[in-house]
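Troubleshooting log. The previous run stalled partway through. Resubmitting the same two chains, unchanged.
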Amino acid sequence: MAKRSVQWLLAVGVGAVLGACGDDGGGPAQDGSDSGTDAGTTEADASTGTTAAADVSTTGGTDTGPPELEWEFDDVYGVINVDDDDQSGSSDWYQVVFDAEDDVSVIPVPPVPEGHRVQLRMVGDLENARVWNGPQKFAVGSGDGEVVESYEFTPGPEGAELLVVFGADNVFAGLTLSVHDSAGDEVARADVELRSSPLVLNHHLQPTEHVWVVDVDQSWGTNASMVAEYAAVLGEQFTPVPGNSYGNDVWIQDEIQLATGIGAQGQRANTVIDSIRNRELDPFAEENLEAPDFNVRTWGNPSQVTSWDSFGNLENSPPLTVDGVDYPFGRIYYGRQGDLGLHAEMAAYLQSQEIQAPFELDTLWLCVGHVDEYTSFVPDPDSPKGFRFLISDVPAAWELLESLDPSMELTRFGADHGYDTVGDILADPALRNLNDDLQADYLDPMRELVTAEFGLEPDDIILMPSLFEEIGGCGGGVAALVPGMVNLIVTPLATETHLFIPDPYFRTDVDDQSSDPFIQNMNDNLPDSLVPHYVDDWDVYHLGLGEVHCGTNMTQTPTANWWEVALHLL
Amino acid sequence: MTTKSISTLLLLAALAVLPACAGGVDDSDGLRSTPEGAIDPVAAPVEARSAPPAATAAATPAPAVADWRPWVAAEVERLRSERPDYFDELMALPVRPTRAGFPRLTGPLVRDPDAAPILLHRLLSRAEPVDTRAAIVEALPRTTGDFSAAAAELMALETDPRVRELLCAALARAQAPFAIEGLERGLHDSAARVRAEALRSLGRRTTDAAELAPDIIAALSDPEAVVQQEAARALGNLELESAKDALVARLDSPSADVRLHSLRALSRIDPEHARTLPQLEALRSDPDPKLARLAEQLATGK
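Second attempt completed without errors. Output:
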């Protein structure tokens, strides 16, 4: 049961007061061939559901009795239409419906008996929904500078097609279609819900469609081996982005967030949320992704940008149930505490979508400040929830290190982190204090919080051995000392799910991954169904204060129909 | 005389005239009295890069050279002769933006002890943007080469607080006695961010930072809460008994972070004493949840 229905809209009087004249406002390409009408008072007596059926026998009558008329319609579950399907340079929302348009929802209207007319009355979010009588005649909703609430027309002998278009995500409106006989009496009526999909962020269990990584080969580092691994595993589903085209800005996770909306008539609206981060990758979305069915939008003021506005700081869980409430599209989480964190405008928009019930985590203690630095999810078909939650854990790291030979040399850690051996790390009291404090002050409370917000059981959680270090000049903020293996990419493919994980290089022989205790620990803890790939991200990402997830982005396939499984959240 | 040797003499002359002065002056760039363009470094195209050194440089730095100026000049001369491609590449190595936004100088070229004198040469011979100079300074420890005496002295010469802040960070991995000398300058810097970073580095130097115990304890009374907080953290790491009274006095600080780190430091210096502090009861209900948890843990032993 949805939180709101057409009857609810009618009862609370959302939208304009019924009775205003119809088509005098006019929408794009309105030809005025049909007439506006004074709408009568509407009664809230129809049932809700996916099909709105009319009561043809009780609302008025004529000398000849009610006509034989099947007057019922499916509710409309559509998508936002702000892409540019005809590539005219103008958002489709501001155009008449054209042939190439594929984001409209159709309401077929049957023919009515001679002398009868059909009246449309619309309530709710009229500013962000529009109904056309065919592709050219504007009917009700968002018109040319004003909203129009009612409209009257006579379907042709073949009936008519009402085309519903939405100008925003998560729009909710109601449309009443009533049939009036020649005397003006109502002989049939149906209420139809008009909803557009909320903006839905992807989660790690959705099938991977396409993956991008910025390819760099610079004097400060190369990610050639990581790119090669992606290409080998993903084949045509992977595209390296030429780094020299984007100033070698490798942080593609941070620049854009992919989201989708799908409709019940097969529509799919892809949204690229383009961060206000606006570094060298800023034009990437417009140059590579913006296309028919791909719109690019931005929330927030770029002049107020912080590191928290990068989308490694915006993640989403797999589907879950919390305290009896199903979240079929997961729950969004992002780093924000008080006034600091993800831009308030972005956060408010995500909140307004309702379906993924966002909540905040504390990332202020991190130099970069993103949730992907210490949390993630991986699929696990064998677990009750279908996934496992990963979170950084300091005690797990100490336990792992204390099981090792202290004299074990750490080839990669000497120069870049100042530790030649395992024993050097264990013997550094300041490092131990720092990490123990991080666990007590942040990681433990955050684990407690996500356990509640995600409805997790202890077995749902994989504790990822992790150590952090302070970053000079970052005001005491920390970043991963051992490459943050939690900062990984999940790519569910047709037959297998592959993980791309930062190689921790916690070993003597850098070429021998089998000798790495962090890799061994990861392999031991990962669900058996997953195929891990430990990729070299040291120079390009790790020393740049990020890891694999920060340098990867992807499109994914929606796997559930929101109107079937998530109306209780809307 | 070759052009390179003339350049070396000019560098020596430039270094010789650098005046020593304590503390920093905010909001101005560069080294005081550093003659710009004293050296004409030769930039090399990236394509001409030499094979990266093996990534096996150890954390233990090379022995510190006290008279670092002629050492840098001599090393520059040597490397221009023996590893000209490497020298040129490192001089041209661009900073790259970190995920956090500020730039860093990283990668295989940096992981080489020979990088230290070249980076110092680059720092002193070029008028580069503040962020670049800060990145060069920040990279010095990753070279595993010697930079200790230079960093200590540069703390007195550098005019930009961002660069001095990064010098303090680098000094955490520098050698004695220069590290302490430089960090002492950092403790008395005019910029709070520099004083705070100096305290963070001192807190990491658990073997010798106690030499500055009085200064660190005095930093608990710094006007800036962030400096007080870092002083408390450093004292906890150093487990300085002499700091107990001063730390107890900070338990009623208006800053929750100062209260938290003071209590935590006390728990590290003398856990028994911390458990019997009369302030503990009130701190158990402190509005800051981190502090309340710590106080609860100390009071109950759980």
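Takeaways: Chain A has eleven helices and 35 strands. The two ends of chain A are 9 Å apart (CA to CA).
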